[in-house]
Amino acid sequence: KEIDEINSWVYPRINDGVYRCGFAQKQDAYEKAFDDLFESLDKVEEILSRKRYLVGDRLTIADIRLFVTLIRFDPVYVVYFKTDQSRIDDYPNMFNYMKEIYQMPEIKTTVVFPHIKTHYLSSHPKLNYYGIIPKGRQVDLDAPHNRHEMKSA
User: Fold this and answer.
1) Domain residue limits, the chain
2) 40: left (phi over 0), alpha (psi -120 to 50) or beta
3) One CATH from 2.60.40.420, 2.102.10.10, 1.20.1050.10, 1.10.1200.10 for 2-147
4) What is the pTM of this model?
5) Do 141 and 98 contact (CB within 8 A), yes or no?
6) pLDDT tens over the chain, length 153 residues
C-alpha cells in the first residue's frame, strides 16, 4: 500500500515529469511540469531525511522506479529537458540515496553513462538538432554515502 502511494506521485510528477518538461510545447505546460517536478523532489528529500528508502528500511520497486530518473537527472535531464533548478547532488539525502543504490553491484552494471547520454541526446533531433553530446561534469558516485546511518522508520 505504501509503495502504491509513493508511486502514485513519483511516476507522474518525477519519472514522467522530466518528459513533461522536455517535450512541453507551451511555456505554461513547461512551468507546471517544472514546478510539479521540483515540488516532488523536495518531498523525496524530506522523506529521505527520515527513512533510508522511500517506504522504510528496505529497497523496493518504488526506489528502483525513482532511481532510474535520478541517475539520469544531472547528466541528461538538467540540460536536455531544461530541469535546471537544482541538480540531484544539491539534495544531500537524495544524492547519498542515489549513490547507495548505484553502488549495489546488481544495479551498477546496468548504468552505462556513455550510452545513456548518447541515446537521449541523439534520439530526438528536434531537441538537439546537431546531436552535440555535452561533456558535463564528473560526479563520483562511488564515493562513500551515509545511508547506512539511517534509522529504521
Assistant:
1) 2-147
2) alpha
3) 1.20.1050.10
4) 0.92
5) yes
6) 999 999 999 999 999 999 999 999 999 999 999 999 999 999 999 999 999 999 988 999 999 999 999 999 999 999 999 999 999 999 999 999 999 999 999 999 999 988 989 888 888 888 888 888 888 888 899 999 999 887 655
Supply 56's cell numbers.
Answer: 522504510
Distance CA 45, CA 63 (A): 13
Whole-angstrom distance, CA of residue 152 vs CA of residue 100:
16
